[in-house]
Design goal:
Elements: H1 6-18, E1 20-22, E2 31-33, E3 44-47, E4 50-53, H2 54-63, E5 74-77, E6 90-93
Antiparallel strand pairs: 1-2, 3-4, 5-6
Length: 102
Amino acid sequence: MLHLDLADRAELIRRLNLKTLKIVNDKPDCHLWMGTKNNYGYGVIRFKKVLYRVHVLAYELFNSAILNALSRVYVQHECGIRHCINPEHLSLSKSSKGYNPV
């Protein structure tokens, strides 16, 4: 999904940090997206005219992974909070039950 140079990756990380609220008391170490959310509660961000789901973006940026929409791999939230973008709470799954596809 992401084929960005280092400057673009740095800019996306900066934007993710600006729109994230780090919560420790409510949910254990969730980093909650405070920007725009879609109708399903997932955070989204527009960058260079492309709309990205921020949890997928966070997974790719912080795990140095490039996910392909055709691979049928899903990024799931271990914490169950759809607008959490803490990379430690995100993992890959082959099951689509309850998860947004990449």
